[in-house]
Amino acid sequence: MSTLLRITDVKKSFSAPENGVVNVLNGVNLEIRPKTITSIIGSSGSGKSTLLHIIAGLEKIDSGLVEWQGDDITQWGDKKMANFRNTEMGFIFQFHYLLPEFSAIENVMIPAIINGKSERESNRLAKELLDEFGLRHRIDHRPSQLSGGEQQRVAMARALINTPALILADEPTGNLDEKNSSTILNHLLNLKNRFSVSILMVTHDKSINKDCDFIFEMTDGKLLPI
Ligand SMILES: Nc1ncnc2c1ncn2[C@@H]1O[C@H](COP(=O)(O)OP(=O)(O)O)[C@@H](O)[C@H]1O
Ligand SMILES: [Mg+2]
Fold first, then answer.
1. pLDDT tens track for 20-52
2. Domain 1-83+204-226 belongs to what topology?
3. Is the model more confident about 96 or about 222?
4. What separation, in Å, do the N-terminal and C-terminal C-alpha atoms of the chain show?
5. Ligand 1: does its nearest atom lie under 6 Å from the Cβ of 203?
6. Where in the chain are the domains?
7. What is the rounded distance in angstroms from the CA atom of residue 53 to the CA atom of residue 132?
8. Whose CA is nearest to atom 27 of ligand 1?
């Protein structure tokens, strides 16, 4: 099948006043095909989040290519990029980043409304997703009234509402205990078939690796298959 995302020889450095230029990504190559699960491990500070930010168009590269279905995303304007982020990608981070003043269902609906769906349709879709993640009785709760695991499941529903092609998950269980981590990871693994989505995740949780299609380690600014 075709390639969703292709990253070719991407380099990225940051200049820090204290320690000059730091080469974070030093020739990264990666290919994501439809309906695949890819996991990236690597020590703290090795550049994993930087890579996800680049894929999301939130960080510029120094050189290389980032192609989405053959199109060079580094050439896209802000509007196209924002639309791409909202419709083709879903994000799950270590912290949920739910909006505190909105209920669970409102948080899930917002990306659909931004995408032009009616309130009624957005509400229906959000309810369906929250139900799927076992949150039927929590839809009117604010994030602060939910447990860490529940908050993360709301974030997962929000990431899926516009039926993205790729979910980016950056240490999605980094803030959870073992039981909640395994619930979230199981949900993540099921998404591939249930929503025909690809998943690119950064995780320290080794137990998940046997269920991934591809595993890489970020070392010395490169992705090495393991
Ligand atoms: N905006 C930035 N400005 C300067 N340095 C940064 C910036 N973002 C990340 N870095 C540096 O890049 C390196 C990789 O960071 P990061 O991608 O967050 O690593 P990881 O997610 O693997 O822990 C770190 O040394 C970090 O301090
Ligand atoms: Mg990180």
1. 899 999 999 999 999 999 999 999 999 999 999
2. Rossmann fold (3.40.50)
3. 222
4. 23
5. no
6. 1-83+204-226, 96-157
7. 28
8. 45
